[in-house]
Specification:
Blueprint lengths: L1 H11 L6 H12 L3 H15 L7 H41 L1
Helix pairs in contact: 1-2, 1-3, 2-3
């Protein structure tokens, strides 16, 4: 639905006085807010290279990498604490002998 609505905006700009008027008209017909449809149009322009910004695919990839980075940091913290515990226990065991 999103792609179809965006395409309708691009196709009907000439029939309306401005792009915003086309967005308002189409958003009323499809049942979403004009602001939402305007964001979809801007995102489509970024994804197609007509507007500066980070394309959707790249933004999703960055989110996935940030999530993976966070998980790896957590795993490293767990390993660091486990290592400290292991060496502390080994030291206590060495001292008790």
């Amino acid at each position: 639905m999103r792609e179809r609505a965006v395409r309708l905006v691009f196709d009907s700009v000439g029939q309306h006085g401005s792009r915003w008027q086309a967005i308002v008209s189409i958003s009323a017909k499809i049942g979403c807010s004009a602001q939402t449809l305007n964001e979809w149009v801007k995102k489509a322009e970024v994804d197609s290279g007509k507007r500066a910004g980070i394309p959707t695919e790249m933004a999703e990839r960055m989110k996935a990498l940030e999530r993976e980075n966070h998980e790896l940091r957590q795993a490293n913290e767990i390993l660091r604490k486990a290592s400290a515990y292991f060496f502390a226990m080994a030291e206590l065991d060495r001292r008790s002998k």
